[in-house]
Every structure is written in structure tokens, then in C-alpha cells.
Amino acid sequence: MYKHILLAVDGSENSVRAAKEAVKIASENSLIEMVYVGDFEKAKTEVLHAVSSESLLLERKRKVALVEEVLRVAGSNFKLTILHGTPGPIIVKYANEKQVDLVIIGSRGLNTLQEMVLGSVSHKVMKNVHCPALIVK
User: Fold this and answer.
1) CA angle 61–62–64, rounded 5-degree value
2) What is the CATH number for 85?
3) Are 6 and 102 in contact (CB under 8 A)?
4) Could you report the per-residue pLDDT of 51-104, keeping only the tens digit for each?
5) Which Pfam family, an example, fits this chain (predicted)?
6) Which domain, by its residues, includes 43?
7) Residue 103's closest CA among 89, 122, 120?
8) pTM as predicted
9) For the chain, what is the domain count?
10) Which residues have C-beta within 8 Å of that of residue 56, sequence separation ≥ 6?
11) Helices in the chain by DSSP H: which ranges?
């Protein structure tokens, strides 16, 4: 049984699929912690276009609203944590520090060449967390 599940979310359809798998795996005693990382490279643009820090927070919450709805409808115990930095290393650091029991992350579906050149967040997380990890396609 997994008591603390870290669900990495970015607002994509892959995050929604990952949330559906998290619901299947979680028990009634599990906490699903949605972790959204404000990517430094994208955050500059977000901050420039935001009217205030409150509007920026609301925009980030809007991005994960579909994932939150999946968890709410399923009756899951969940919370949202917003972090800042480069997603792969930040998710790994947070998961290892919090000693989560399982990490679930969606895959963007990069082809082999793209993954070799660019690397993927899910691949970086999978290689470096100290707990089981599930990549959802």
C-alpha cells in the first residue's frame, strides 16, 4: 500500500491520464500530492504576463484543474504543491526529501531521438528517485 503518492502534473492530457492511474493505485488511506513545477524557463514569460502574484497562482491552479477534478470525483485524498525550478531535478529532489512511496508521472511521448537529445522529465525522474516510479503513456 502506498501512503504518500507524488503525482507530477503540468496541466497536460498526460497528467490527466497519470491522475486516473493514481486513483486506481491509491487506497483510502493514501495521500496523492499533486506537484506542479513552475519551470524557470517558462516562468519568466508567465510572470511578465501576470497582473499580480495572485493571478499567476490562479493561472497555475487553472492548469491543474482537470487533474484535480479527476481526483475529486474519485473521492481521493489529495493536495497541491507548487514548486519552482527545472521540473526533472526539482521533482526528484522533492520526492527524495519527502520520502514518498511512489512517483507517478505522465510521458510526453518523445521519440527515441528527441529523448536522447532533449532528455525527458519522466526519464530523469525515473532514473533518480529513490522509490518506485510509474510513467503513464
Assistant:
1) 70
2) 3.40.50.620
3) yes
4) 455 655 677 678 899 999 999 999 999 999 999 899 999 999 999 999 999 999
5) Usp
6) 4-136
7) 122
8) 0.85
9) 1
10) 46, 47, 50
11) 13-25, 40-49, 53-63, 65-73, 87-98, 112-118, 121-128
